[in-house]
Amino acid sequence: MTEQPGPAATxxxxxxxxxxxxxxxxxxxxxxxxxxxGGTRGxxxxxxxxxxxxxxxxxxxxxPMRTAGERIAERIVTAIALGExxxxxxxxxxxxxxxxLEVSRTSVREALQRLQASxxxxxxxxxxxxxxxxxxxxxxxxxxxxxxLVPAWKELSEILDFRSLxxxxxxxxxxxxxxxxxxxxxxxxxDGYAGAADREASRLADHALHQAIARATHNARLVDLxxxxxxxxxxxxxxxxxxxxxxxxxxxxxxxLADAVIAGDPVLAGECAASHFSLTEDMLTELYARISLRSxxxxxxxxxxx
Length: 306
Description:
The chain is mostly helical and 306 residues long. It is built from eleven helices and two strands. It folds into two domains: 65-138, Orthogonal Bundle (Arc Repressor Mutant, subunit A), CATH 1.10.10; 150-295, Four Helix Bundle (Hemerythrin (Met), subunit A) (Up-down Bundle). A hairpin with a 5-residue loop joins strand 1 (121-124) and strand 2 (130-133).
């Protein structure tokens, strides 16, 4: 879904192509990327014969295509459902969202307008203004989440597994290679998360901790890989899923992971990393299961009514 590639898009990448992911493969794409609207799907090179259209009616009418703005809106609603953005939190600016998702600002503007019209976000003017999350629940929220998660679930599952393996490697390597500077940075980041006053402060402190541990490997490629996977798992928004329960668990898991790295215990550090990074996987899996169950129930209900 790259109508107009952002700064991180691959040179020569065409509209609708998925960009490279952390492993040099393809990044997680939105459902429907590369679709082109506005045409009739009747046949090659033109519209279907008039007689057939009259005979079959709506069956051969043009298939409506979702715009890039619609797909971005769906992704934002999914991120809100995961707690990546919470009520009263200001969303990244239009320019920042366009860069994060590698799309045009026009598409982001359309997405925000749709979300505002549906009551998910609100706009505040003046100093400290911007677009703020109002709610994550709406009459079409489940369908928007389904369109984001279900088509990409197999790929997302592989990314989550890949992340678990990579972060365990990072933790073990950091335990072998950390120095006094790394130890100070890790301790400072743990304290920063414990003292975070809100969602945004927690996000920044969490990112700082995991980047400090990654830098303790003294391998720039591992540092970059950790950050890239984080962005991909978070649907491009660079924010871990968040709830009060997740924060409560992280407040216990962060010190345990940090202590294992600082103590130079690679086995324990790897085990702590595996446990900690399962938080994101658990939240995504729970949301996917809930949406899939609701979709199946609605499908059964429609079948019984026919």
